[in-house]
Amino acid sequence: MRTKLILALVLLAAALSAAALLLRDGGTQAPVARITWDGVLVEEIPLDGIQEPRSFTLEDASGSNRVEVEAGRIRIAQADCPDQICVKQGWISDGTVPIVCLPHKLMIEIVGGGGDLDGAAG
Amino acid sequence: MRKRIVSAALALLLLTQAGCLRDSRPVEGTTFAMDTVMTLTLYGGWDRERTKEGRDWMMGRLVYFDQLLSAASETSDVARINRSNGQPVEVCELTARLLDQALALCELTGGALDITACPAVKAWGFTTGEHRIPSGEELAALAEKIDSSAVRLEGNMVTLPEGMEIDLGAVAKGYAGDQSRETAQSYGITSALIDLGQSTIVAVGGKPDGSPWRIGVVDPAQPEDYFAVVELEDMAMGTSGGYQRYFEADGVTYWHILDPETAAPARSGLSSVTVVAPSALTCDSLSTALFVMGLEEAAQFWREHPALEFEAIFVTEEGEIYRTAGLEGRFSLAEGYRDREVTVLE
User: Fold this and answer.
1) Which of A13, A21, A121 sits opposite B13 (nearest CB)?
2) Is B191 on the interface with A (CB under 8 A)?
């Protein structure tokens, strides 16, 4: 009897951990915009939870970038960098390509949220 | 008997727990080098620390390649060659090896790729962003000075004729990509995506679930969209397009890919070329060379060089899509582009 109980408990534990293992990769996480400066994390913004669009400015010695966030997407609306590539890229809503302001070493990438592609060439 | 069942169940539990211990998240890294942002996504074996060591080593190497090969950095091997005034310069072994391969590729492509086009790129202002249109005479004089066959390499000694300058921009990222893949493999990393700024991408293995990496190819007419998806497994990929760096003057677009023959932007009728091959150096260099050649010549080059093991996707300025036959099963049109016609080159 006691052995059966132990067996049942052990099996239950095994099943639970197996389930946990399967669920961890299977479930789609909510998309989060991750902003880094020269590789250092500045801010993480969950894009699903945004009710009102908002904007803020990131500034350091190299220059400034104004970031706009809406439900599910993010962009750099204004920047004082010479090439304006980050501004021209417009909104991003998935993790395929991050927004990069090379002169300011600023990067905005979206993690989670699935997406069909692993990367982009071009 | 019961004891056996219990121990079997315990063993099962241990196994699944061990599975939990294995962290399924990738080890990631980002570095700014070679005028772009490079991102590494690495999946290692059981030992996550070792994967992190591999990542750190790769990132260090990428910065080192940049310092060695950047024409802009005064202390780089390339800058030293460029101010040598015709005198022999001793370079690092690594630079010499890359230069050797680059010169071979320049020759193989019949000059469509030329690492001595640097003064012309400067004259158009692409290095500083202060764009200008050189006169016809100036261009003729610049074109005269573009000739990679004049570069002498003996061992680690490089001799460049006076008045010429080299730039390894069209090959350095590819070389760095191949080196990064070797590093990844030596650290037991079986699955990785090495993105050296979109123009060069290296896939080590497939994704952790065994399926190939899916990479979008940018539509040159609308660079925020992808017109095609290429599946990569143990393969590299490189794209050159006029939309990547350009300026407009009086309604004319001038892009950074120059024809070594004329020292002017290459107007071959193509707007982007994507090359898929086992070697990232091949992808990086050929995407530029094929862009300069134009569709007809590029297709012929593909037919005549099976040893390079490359496949290619071409988009013309009119938006027509061509691909080589070897991409069968790895190439598909992206959503929104499914009704587009794709001509297969045999």
Assistant:
1) A13
2) no
Is the CB of B30 less than 8 angstroms away from the CB of A120? no
Question: Percent of chain B scored above 70 by pLDDT?
Answer: 93
Residue-range definition of the domain harbouring residue B300: 212-346
- The pLDDT, as a whole number, for residue A27 is 43
CA distance B208 to A24: 14
Whether A33 contacts A107, CB under 8 Å? no
| CA-based torsion, B83, B105, B54, A37: positive or negative | positive
Q: Are A102 and B32 in contact (CB < 8 Å)?
A: yes
Measured distance CA(B296)–CA(B255) in Å, rounded: 21
Which of B12, B218, B239 lies closest to A14 in CB terms? Answer: B12
* pLDDT single digits (tens) B315-328: 999 999 999 999 99
Residue A23's SS3 state is: helix
Strand partners, A78: A66
Using a CB–CB cutoff of 8 Å, tell me whether B128 touches chain A.
no
Query: A14 to chain B: nearest residue by CA?
Result: B13
Query: Is B273's Cβ below 8 Å from some Cβ in A?
Result: no
Q: What is the pTM of this model?
A: 0.84
This complex has an ipTM of 0.77
Q: How many domains does chain B have?
A: 2
B220 with B341, same domain? yes
Please judge whether B229 and A24 are an interchain contact, meaning their C-beta atoms are less than 8 angstroms apart: no
Would you say B156 and B97 are in contact if contact means Cβ atoms under 8 Å apart? no
Between B216 and B198, name the one with better pLDDT. Answer: B216
pLDDT, tens digit (0-9, with 9 covering 90-100), for B79-109? 999 999 999 999 999 999 999 999 999 999 9
Separation between Cα atoms, residue B101 and residue A31, nearest integer Å: 43
Angle at CA of residue B261, ends B260 and B266, nearest 5°? 65
Topology classification of domain A32-111:
mini-chromosome maintenance (MCM) complex, domain 2 (2.60.320)
- CB-nearest to A7 from B9, B19, B20 is B9
Size of interface A-B (CB pairs under 8 A): 108
**Could you tell me if B310 and B237 lie in one domain?**
yes
Tell me: do B252 and B332 sit in the same domain: yes
Instruction: Establish if B121 belongs to a structural domain.
Output: yes
Pick the last residue of a domain from B159, B185, B220. B159
In CATH, what number is assigned to the domain containing residue B259?
Answer: 3.10.520.10
Q: Is residue B193 part of a domain?
A: no
Residue B22 has pLDDT above 60, yes or no: no
> Both B122 and B229 in a single domain?
no
